[in-house]
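User: tokens in, sequence out, please.
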């Protein structure tokens, strides 16, 4: 087994990519009218120089306020605050203030406890972390109400970065309310996935946001783009001579992108029951991974080049044979046991409406209709409540054109594995085994990726604070990802694909496409 200590996030030591400024286009948004008492920070700045939207200065030099909407939710607790804590602990954000807001009537004390625990759990310590905890405040608000939003904005100062850690429908309503109020110039917006609830709502949300701030101030978050292994796909493909030339239909039998979780929905019914596995994972994260694996080489890793290449390949992506009834699967976990722990059936989870028929397991086979990839199935799969975690992209190569007579034991294709947890690169190759010199056996070469400098949410937050949209999703791409999965959603709504139950702790529905789909046969 080969282990490398130096398989790193390609940008960790040289993050200089700046987005080019766009010119022209929009008029300055109206400023918010502060209405409440400037309780926590003296009211928002109303006299920033320059036209709205031209915010190319590096965040670390300019005081910024991060306002988290949905601060009492699961995302903020488990992922966002820990990522923020690590970023702050790194010392690069000396002038950052944190404000939390949720529907619940928390007070500052309770919020500070939440922040303290999240930072401690992430190992974020030091004077800057202490200072952030000391100064952070909590403001209850219903963000669909204009008067609440006005009160929130009145408490914000410095350059404002608003993180919408909200269910998608609430995000859309909050954005609509904000268009009636206006935002301080230079405000940056960070929006969680799923972006909208379908292609039409994603388009409307894009239109709404465009009325608020220019595109370069909008950060559509997909935290998989902040995972160091995901971004290392770029290093693997473009900083080595040996992989890129064979990543094409001439050599590849199929590509599997798999994200199997043992977790159930962990109390997130309020969001998850309206989304389901296809929207929660495939429409966003797994399509982003597909884009990085399948795109053409960008000339640079600057936002414009990288996002352009991803957009191009996603535009060429659709359901295999335009036949979602054949090339998709879904399922829902029933009660079962995982690692000795009992998991309730999904339908019995509190907050779930079983009649919605929400899936906790989804598979779909896609084609990427480009010269490079025509005929190669991309099989995307995700599920909750499964027997084992499996989080990887696997490129399976075709058989060699001819294995010479006399070499025996060839029965497995070569595979390249990119693991997203554990973060590692693997190569399955056939070599002569320990016995007879002409008898083949397969070995698995493994290199661990070094941990990223920051957790994924630390990375995506850093991008937004720096004004660098490289790790966020472009508006047209967010819409296009809905276009890709829309036929599957329609077909499921029409009942054309069954929704079998699988026991929690099992391998999922029996007729998985990973064993039945095109690409299973590995001959060339
Ligand atoms: N949880 C995760 O692992 C991940 C989640 N996401 C995304 O993050 C988003 C939020 O998910 P998650 O945190 O899990 O959901 P939760 O249901 O746990 O949290 C939702 C949050 O939104 C708040 N909220 C709801 N309605 C309003 C309103 N009208 N005004 C103000 N606040 C409101 C809730 O406040 P209160 O509780 O006070 O009512 C709560 O803080 C989703 O889009 C999801 O896709 C993305 C990646 C991972
Ligand atoms: O966005 C989401 O991602 C998580 C998986 O991401 P990880 O970084 O925690 O591994 C998934 O569990 C969740 O359902 C989904 O909303």
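Assistant: Sequence out:
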């Amino acid at each position: 087994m080969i282990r490398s200590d130096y398989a790193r996030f390609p940008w960790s030591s040289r993050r200089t990519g700046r987005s080019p400024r766009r010119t022209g286009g929009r008029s300055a948004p109206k400023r918010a009218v502060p209405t409440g008492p400037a309780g926590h920070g003296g009211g928002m700045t109303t006299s920033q120089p320059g036209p709205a939207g031209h915010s190319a200065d590096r965040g670390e030099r300019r005081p910024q306020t991060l306002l988290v909407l949905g601060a009492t939710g699961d995302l903020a607790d488990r992922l966002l605050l820990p990522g923020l804590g690590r970023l702050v602990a790194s010392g690069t954000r000396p002038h950052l203030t944190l404000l939390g807001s949720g529907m619940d009537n928390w007070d500052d004390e309770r919020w500070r406890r939440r922040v303290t625990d999240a930072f401690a759990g992430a190992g974020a310590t030091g004077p800057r972390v202490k200072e952030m905890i000391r100064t952070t405040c909590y403001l209850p608000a219903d963000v669909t109400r204009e008067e609440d939003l006005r009160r929130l904005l009145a408490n914000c100062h410095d350059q404002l970065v608003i993180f919408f850690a909200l269910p998608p429908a609430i995000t859309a309503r909050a954005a609509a309310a904000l268009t009636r109020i206006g935002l301080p110039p230079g405000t940056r917006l960070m929006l969680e996935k799923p972006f909208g609830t379908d292609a039409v709502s994603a388009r409307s949300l894009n239109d709404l946001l465009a009325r608020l701030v220019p595109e370069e101030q909008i950060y559509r978050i997909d935290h998989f783009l902040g995972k160091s292994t995901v971004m290392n796909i770029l290093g693997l493909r473009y900083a080595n001579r040996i992989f890129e030339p064979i990543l094409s239909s001439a050599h590849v039998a199929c590509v599997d992108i798999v994200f199997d979780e043992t977790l159930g929905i962990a109390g997130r019914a309020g969001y998850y029951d309206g989304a389901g596995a296809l929207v929660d994972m495939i429409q966003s994260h797994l399509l982003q991974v597909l884009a990085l694996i399948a795109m053409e080489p960008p000339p640079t890793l600057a936002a414009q080049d990288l996002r352009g290449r991803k957009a191009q390949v996603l535009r060429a992506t659709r359901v295999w044979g335009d036949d979602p009834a054949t090339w998709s699967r879904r399922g829902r976990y029933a009660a079962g046991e995982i690692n000795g722990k009992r998991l309730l059936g999904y339908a019995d989870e509190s907050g779930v409406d079983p009649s919605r028929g929400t899936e906790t397991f989804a598979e779909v086979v896609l084609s990427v209709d480009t010269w490079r990839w025509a005929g190669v199935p991309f099989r995307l799969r995700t599920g909750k409540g499964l027997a084992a975690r499996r989080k990887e992209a696997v490129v399976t190569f075709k058989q060699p054109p001819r294995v010479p007579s006399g070499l025996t034991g060839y029965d497995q294709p070569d595979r390249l594995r990119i693991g997203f947890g554990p973060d590692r690169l693997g190569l399955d190759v056939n070599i002569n085994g320990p016995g007879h010199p002409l008898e083949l056996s397969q070995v698995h070469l493994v290199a661990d990726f070094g941990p990223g400098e920051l957790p994924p949410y630390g990375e995506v937050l850093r991008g937004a604070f720096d004004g660098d949209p490289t790790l966020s999703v472009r508006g047209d791409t967010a819409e296009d990802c809905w276009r890709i999965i829309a036929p599957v959603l329609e077909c499921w709504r029409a009942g054309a694909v069954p929704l079998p139950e699988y026991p929690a702790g099992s391998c999922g529905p029996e007729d998985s496409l990973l064993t039945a789909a095109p690409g299973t046969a590995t001959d060339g």
